[in-house]
């Protein structure tokens, strides 16, 4: 981590935001082999924000900036990057009124989901954003996205990890990246927007926020994700004709501790009993298995069809309407915490941060 830079005017830190710059297209600059994460983000951001109309500049909260080192393309992120962010935010929590994480879009929703589990009971905003085009590129979405993220990160009442992108504030643990090019690259398939930009106003809908749904003192869980960042949790998406030996090749590996299975529709498997046997063996070995749908919208209802019956008996936990991100990071999180299989299974089925 490097330089801390402050906006020109002084404000006590508890009235300020902390911006954590981790990399991503938003800050990238052209190099020989293509775009690479660029430095001097605080200065570049200040000059971009200086292009906003004066009234909007005046409405901006004061902020400090931290830049991570190395800056990464978020396609390189692992659970250890999620852990670093969780710990850095937790360590500075009461120093700042809110946090903005500047992140690459490829895995932004994964980081947001992980942070939600780490920062349970959060009492202030943590808003992640990024951009589809670099800050200085013509027609870039970067300035609009950071502007909105700053405004929402200074919003009283927002008490959770959220994503701000293309005028929309979304629950982090309910979001997915849905488009590889369009500016509105993120969506929340199974939860309404937490807020949105309407003209020059940034409107938060508190009745949809976590603050009113489940509250208590912050009860952060910051376990060590070491040992869970090199493929120990896997994600398997079905395809027509998937064979049991293929499932076995993934789940039979002793390094694998958990798996997200993406099944057909409402939670159906091909009718090969050997597939269910393979799942039963893996869960019998103590592996944490969950099923979600391949469809981005809707839930799994294990057992609604004969083709999905038997999953629960094989020890597979219903992931309901959870996103792959929410299910995967939750498995990682629960596996990193102390506790036995039954405790983990119970917690998986419990809504911890509005993820299900
Ligand atoms: N590859 C980039 C990243 O995730 C994509 C982006 O930020 N738009 O870092």
Automatic annotation (TrEMBL):
Pfam families (alphabetical): Asparaginase (PF00710), Asparaginase_C (PF17763)
UniProt-listed SMART domains: Asparaginase
Active site: 25, 25 (o-isoaspartyl threonine intermediate), 105
Sequence positions that bind substrate: 74, 105-106
One GO cellular component term noted in the UniProt record for this chain: cytosol
Domain Asparaginase/glutaminase C-terminal: 233-342
Regions crossing the membrane: none
SUPFAM superfamilies xrefs: Glutaminase/Asparaginase
One annotated GO molecular function: asparaginase activity
Origin superkingdom: Bacteria
Name the record gives this protein: L-asparaginase
Organism name: Vreelandella songnenensis
Organism lineage string: Bacteria, Pseudomonadati, Pseudomonadota, Gammaproteobacteria, Oceanospirillales
């Amino acid at each position: 981590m490097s330089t801390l830079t402050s906006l020109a005017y002084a404000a006590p830190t508890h009235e300020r935001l902390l911006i954590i710059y981790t990399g991503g297209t938003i800050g990238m600059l052209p190099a020989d082999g293509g775009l690479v994460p660029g430095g001097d983000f605080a200065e570049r951001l200040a000059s971009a924000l200086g292009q906003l109309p004066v009234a909007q500049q005046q409405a901006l909260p004061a902020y400090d900036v931290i830049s991570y080192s190395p800056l990464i393309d978020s396609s390189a992120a692992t659970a250890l990057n999620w852990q670093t962010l969780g710990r850095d935010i937790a360590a500075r929590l009461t120093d700042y009124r809110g946090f903005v994480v500047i992140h690459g879009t490829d895995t932004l929703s994964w980081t947001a989901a992980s942070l939600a589990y780490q920062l349970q009971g959060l009492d202030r905003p943590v808003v992640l954003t990024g951009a589809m085009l670099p800050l200085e590129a013509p027609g870039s979405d970067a300035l609009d996205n950071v502007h909105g993220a700053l405004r929402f990160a200074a919003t009283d009442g927002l008490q959770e990890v959220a994503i701000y992108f293309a005028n929309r504030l979304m629950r982090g643990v309910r979001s997915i990246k849905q488009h590889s090019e369009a500016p509105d690259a993120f969506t929340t398939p199974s939860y309404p927007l937490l807020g949105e930009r309407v003209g020059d106003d940034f409107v938060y809908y508190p009745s949809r926020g976590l603050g009113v749904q489940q509250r208590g003192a912050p009860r952060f869980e910051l376990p060590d994700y070491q040992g869970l960042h090199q493929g120990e949790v896997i994600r398997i998406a079905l395809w027509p004709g998937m064979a049991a030996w293929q499932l076995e090749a993934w789940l039979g590996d002793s390094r694998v501790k958990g798996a997200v299975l993406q099944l057909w529709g409402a939670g159906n498997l091909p009718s090969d009993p050997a597939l269910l046997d393979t799942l039963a063996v893996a869960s019998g070995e103590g592996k944490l298995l969950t099923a979600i749908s391949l469809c981005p919208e809707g839930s799994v209802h294990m057992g609604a069809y004969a083709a999905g019956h038997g999953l629960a008996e094989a020890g597979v936990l219903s992931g309901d309407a959870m996103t792959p991100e929410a299910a995967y990071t939750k498995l990682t999180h629960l596996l990193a915490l102390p506790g036995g299989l039954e405790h983990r299974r119970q917690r998986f089925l419990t809504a911890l941060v509005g993820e299900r």
